[in-house]
């Protein structure tokens, strides 16, 4: 059963950093179509690629992930 849930925030972080998909393609060395699929949450990058993307964007890897409901609850408590 496929769901269309947004799992990553790559596109959001790119916008926040004023960067484009094309810029990320050039930095990470992946195919334009692949990066586009990550940005639309059609497919997800590997953990290794997510780590590399966070490094390139100079963000904590957690900023690239959409928190689960439990994580949101914990964040409001803390």
Automatic annotation (TrEMBL):
HTH cro/C1-type domain residues: 26-64
GO MF term set: DNA binding
SMART domains: HTH_XRE
Gene3D superfamilies in the record: lambda repressor-like DNA-binding domains
Protein name: Helix-turn-helix transcriptional regulator
Pfam family, one: HTH_26
InterPro entries referenced in this protein's UniProt entry, alphabetically: Cro/C1-type_HTH, Lambda_DNA-bd_dom_sf
């Amino acid at each position: 059963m496929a769901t269309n849930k947004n799992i990553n925030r790559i596109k959001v972080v790119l916008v926040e950093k004023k960067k484009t998909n094309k810029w990320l393609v050039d930095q990470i060395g992946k195919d334009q179509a692949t990066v586009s699929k990550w940005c639309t949450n059609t497919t997800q990058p590997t953990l290794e690629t997510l780590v590399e993307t966070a490094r390139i964007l100079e963000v904590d890897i957690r900023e690239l992930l959409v928190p689960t409901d439990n994580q949101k609850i914990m964040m409001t408590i803390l």
